[in-house]
Specification:
This protein is of the alpha/beta class. It has 2 domains: 1-26 and 105-196, P-loop containing nucleotide triphosphate hydrolases (Rossmann fold, 3-Layer(aba) Sandwich); 32-103, P-loop containing nucleotide triphosphate hydrolases (Rossmann fold, 3-Layer(aba) Sandwich). 54% of the residues lie in helices and 11% in strands. The protein has helices at 14-23, 31-37, 44-53, 66-74, 77-100, 133-144, 148-157, 161-167, 178-198, and strands at 3-7, 27-30, 107-110, 125-130, 170-173. Strands 2-3-1-4-5 form a 5-stranded parallel beta sheet, with helices on both faces. The longest helix has 24 residues, at 77-100. The protein binds adenosine-5'-triphosphate. Adenosine-5'-triphosphate (ATP) binds at residues 8, 10-16, 112, 139, 143, 174, 177-178, 181.
Length: 203
């Protein structure tokens, strides 16, 4: 299977791109969704988190209290590291399992942390969705109703834009309107179909 990794900073338009690719019949694995699945009630990773941080990290209904967890790891880099070392391999394994079950002409792995983690090693082609920081902030604010300072602090934790771009095989410039993006994604899809057909192990 030819696997395309799609990444980009917060509010860059990854979901806008993958939604359209799904409309073309492409299977998309979303690393954010997988990251939530692996800490659902009944999952081993959730038990380990509760053992490590204590049961107050769970809500009354046994779900992960994300706000509480964020507080714990925000102020303590060692705890953050512990959590990453627990979750990254579990998320990666689950992504591989889901990619193995895809059936489309190529498959997409959409992940905000594609380049920051070893997830990019699972892919054959890397697409970076790129917009200037001012647009990232503006679009995220109007989507999530948070303020510019909150968005800026998230941008600070992500890999800088120029570093992402040098790792890209294809860059999607999403600074224009949605109609322009739609055309770019249609062109991207044709290109990826061709690359997938040319891949040595394609059917
Ligand atoms: P995150 O990493 O935060 O999940 P994302 O990269 O998936 O973000 P999207 O949710 O696709 O980003 O886009 C952010 C917001 O900007 C959404 O509300 C989306 O509808 C809007 N948007 C995306 N592309 C454009 C565009 N070209 N013109 C106008 N609005 C856009």
């Amino acid at each position: 299977m030819f696997i395309v990794g799609i990444t980009g900073g917060i509010g860059s338009g990854k979901s806008a791109v993958t939604r359209q690719l799904e409309q073309f019949g492409i299977n998309v694995i979303d690393a954010d969704i997988v990251a939530r699945e692996v800490v659902a009630p009944g999952e081993e990773a959730l038990q380990k988190i509760a053992q490590h941080f204590g049961s107050q990290i769970l809500t009354n209904s046994g779900e992960l209290n994300r706000a509480e967890l964020r507080v714990k790891i925000f102020s303590d880099p060692k705890e953050r590291k512990w959590l990453e070392q627990l979750l990254h391999p579990v998320i990666r394994a689950r992504i591989i399992q889901q990619l193995d079950n895809t059936q489309s002409s190529y498959a997409v792995l959409a992940s905000p942390l594609l380049l920051e983690t070893d997830q990019h090693q699972l892919t054959d082609h890397i697409v970076v969705v790129d917009v200037p920081e001012a647009i990232q902030i503006e679009r995220t604010i109007s989507r999530d109703k948070n303020n510019a300072e909150q968005v800026k602090s998230i941008i600070q934790t992500q890999m800088p834009r120029d570093q992402k771009i040098v790792k890209a095989d294809t860059i999607i410039d999403n600074s224009a309107d949605l109609a322009t993006l739609k055309k770019e994604v249609a062109a991207l899809h044709s290109k990826l179909l061709t690359l997938a057909k040319q891949a040595p192990y394609s059917d």
